[in-house]
Amino acid sequence: MKFLHTADWQIGKPFQSISDHAKRESLRKQRLDTLIALKSLIEKDKLDFVVVCGDLFDSWTPDAATVSGLCSAVGSLKVPVYAIPGNHDHGGPGCIWEQEFFLREKEQLAPNFHILLKPEPVVLESAVLLPCPLLRRHESEDPTEWLRNEPEGLPEELPRIVLAHGSTQGFSSSGEADSESGINRIELERLPKSSYDYIALGDWHGMKEIAPGAWFCGTSEQDRFAKGDSNQPGHVCIVEIENTGAAPKVTPHKTGTVGWHSPDDFHFTNDDDLETLESQIETFIGQQTNRDLLKVRVHGTLSFTGIESFEKLAESLRARLIRLDLDQDLQIEPSVEELNALTERQDPLIALVAQQLRDSMETDPLARDALRELQLQTRKVEA
Q1: Alpha-carbon span 71 to 102, nearest angstrom
Q2: SS3 for 93?
Q3: Of 61, 82, 107, 169, which has the most beta carbons under 10 Å away?
Q4: Cβ-count burial of 135 within 10 angstroms (0-12 exposed, 13-18 middle, 19+ buried)?
Q5: Domain 2-254 belongs in CATH node 3.40.50.150
Q6: Domain boundaries, the chain
Q7: 81 has which bridge partners?
Q8: pLDDT per residue as tens digits for the range 110-119
Q9: pTM metric for this prediction
Q10: CB within 8 A of 187, min separation 6: which ones?
Q11: Is 98 helix (H, G, I), strand (E, B) or coil?
């Protein structure tokens, strides 16, 4: 028996930090395209069904177009899809999962879609699902508490799969190293280990096995700059269970297509380092456009020419990237040739001002910036 474990689709995420409307909408659409692309993986590996561990929508109140888009994507997968609500799309009174429009769209576009709103066993032909849905955004009680005593009357020959959404010791959706909050807290150590064959988790956006047979699968499409090398967002997990009591075989599969890059800080010692920076960025984005986000901090010194080249590079990146998050702390260090070009100009006033600024460079921290501005103004006059 093989199935797909995924979570945290967060369809409809607004991405408000991205100012360009077209790029923002492109990023939102890609999340649906990534789900639709799961069909080829499902067919290739002959998967029996899909489980989604919460946060299918980004909001408790998605608009109609978002609802229809999600239902259409789920319907395209063809195999049964079993999902629980998470904290973003919880299943409380008046929830989207019980609204007439969603139910109608689900029936017409995704008859294979099953949203599990009750903490009770769901017996399938090949497995027993044990859903732990969040019925409120913030649950003070462990959503898996009902499983601490093994449910009675379950077929012994079928593997048992827990579906849950929440934080655990060391992992939370906020990305923090540890979550001390009791909200939506799952205490895995209190579940009888021999009673469940696989624990499918959602909420943390990275992918990791946090206990034997208990996995966070992470997001299918990354939605933030990752913290640390071990985060690994943008994945789903293919889970194979041969028989009850046997350790599950989990195969991560990368699904993310949007690149969220946050390289180490870059230090300029001179203008030659610009080529190194461009080369590093090219390894991330190549020649593609509107497929990547880049967060980078640069510092160091550049000449007038170097600053100009860097500004042109930043202009190109802002056009090519979905988002450029640039933190720069650059100091101007004009070359001797650049200083001579200003102090030896034909215009005596410009030459005099340039020489005075040149003489005060060591004592006045604003002198270099003033020289840069003087250079720019003289070039405008010449143009």
Answers
A1: 8
A2: coil
A3: 82
A4: middle
A5: no
A6: 2-254, 259-382
A7: 50, 113
A8: 999 999 999 9
A9: 0.89
A10: 142, 144, 168
A11: helix
